[in-house]
Amino acid sequence: MNGPVKLLAVFGTRPEAVKMGPLLAELRRREAFEVRVCVTGQHREMLDPVLRVFGVTADHDLDVMRRGQSLFDVTEAVLRGMERVLDEERPDMVLVYGDTATAFAGALASFYKKIPVAHVEAGLRTYDMARPWPEEMYRRSVTLMSAVHFAPTREAKDNLLREGVDAGRIYVTGNTAIDALAVTVKSDYGNSILDWAAGSRLVLVTAHRRENLGAPLEGMLRAIRRAAEERPDVKALYPVHLNPAVGGTAHAVLDGCERVRLTGPLEPVEFANIMARSYLVLTDSGGLQEEAPSLDVPVLVMRDKTERPEGVAAGTLRLAGTTERSVYAALTSLLDDPAAHEAMARAVNPYGDGHASRRIADGLEEYFETRR
Ligand code: UD1
Ligand code: UDP
């Protein structure tokens, strides 16, 4: 190849943008690459503040989000939108991140156009198609469509090897979520939420997984309310995802509870700094399982299975299940056992050292060098 390699990064949800932010900055520093950005706008209000924090300007914005969108809506709109963008840009490679509808449809569009795909955050698996749903299918499909795979850990690489991916196409890099913390977390941060929590142990809650909507989410939130109401030194903060199915349940269960505060989604600097000052995180999110341990904050995962088993093995994560009973038991046993809390807080985070973006950029350079 002559001249810089043209990369097109495609992403559209909040977590993809957080994790792409530092990677785009690293790629743009290198002469080897010309970087173009297509945001799908699968998220809108939750995406735009992240772009601002990381200084990302989109060359294309498919603006696909609709209130109450279905998987059909997102997949179709991204696929059709990407057809136009790929015809216009003709990139040498498309970068997608993780396991969202955007990543799946973005990879599929590139596959149809015979443009190689690089999959960042590759190899995460539960081997259960229903958990998380539809993400397990998306990430496995993206693997099939990808030419190069950036696995955050050795375990993720091993999953890919077992599935027959060529070892020469896999790079173990850590997760760029940790790189992002260097941008967002500040030593001298303060705000009104932290003032409200001052003097209490703060439990930071997020929950939005599709398979947990309805009764499981209701049970989880009841468990949190009970645990907080029983302990005068505990408060919980829940920045509620904008999916109306999440907000309805959150307000129905938690309104009127003084020790549990609901807010809208927080922009990433505010969120990361509150997370850094929390006593523990209780979540069904993916990204928080990687980020919180880097801030020495234990994570209780409201799932029955996690695609991040390294964190459980390292002692930074514990599975809390998805029922009121299991979440209450996991939460109260950690709140009431300072030694266990201390051990989790001290465990070493397996998801990276904050230099994943550099390794991914090196991997891409090597990939294209071998093709010159
Ligand atoms: C998506 C991803 C999920 C990821 C999550 C991160 C898929 C299938 N799911 O799920 O893997 O963990 O993002 O948050 O790709 N909404 C807004 N404004 C926003 C964002 C969402 O109003 O900025 C509302 C809309 O009504 C939308 C709904 O939330 O219909 C659901 O959004 P969607 O992207 O379809 O699914 P998520 O549950 O966010
Ligand atoms: N996050 C944020 N504001 C919030 C909640 C989360 O900035 O109110 C960040 C969080 O630090 C992480 C990412 O968003 O980087 C996680 O997104 P989400 O939980 O929506 O998705 P998942 O990781 O489950 O795919």
Describe the overall structure.
With 372 residues, this protein is an alpha/beta fold. The chain has 2 domains: 5-175 and 353-369, 3-Layer(aba) Sandwich (Rossmann fold), CATH 3.40.50.2000; 192-346, 3-Layer(aba) Sandwich (Rossmann fold). Helices cover 46% and strands 16% of the residues. It has helices at 14-28, 48-53, 71-89, 101-112, 135-145, 154-162, 176-184, 192-197, 215-230, 244-254, 268-276, 287-294, 309-314, 324-335, 338-346, 356-369, and strands spanning 5-11, 33-39, 60-61, 93-97, 117-120, 148-151, 170-172, 201-206, 234-239, 260-263, 280-283, 299-301, 317-319. The protein has a 7-stranded parallel β-sheet, sandwiched between helices. A 6-stranded parallel β-sheet has the order 10-9-8-11-12-13, sandwiched between helices. The longest helix is centred in the first third of the chain and has 19 residues, at 71-89. The radius of gyration is 20 Å and the shape is globular. The termini are close together. The chain binds uridine-diphosphate-N-acetylglucosamine and uridine-5'-diphosphate. The site of uridine-diphosphate-N-acetylglucosamine has 25 residues, from helix 1 and helix 3. Uridine-diphosphate-N-acetylglucosamine binds next to helix 1 and helix 3.
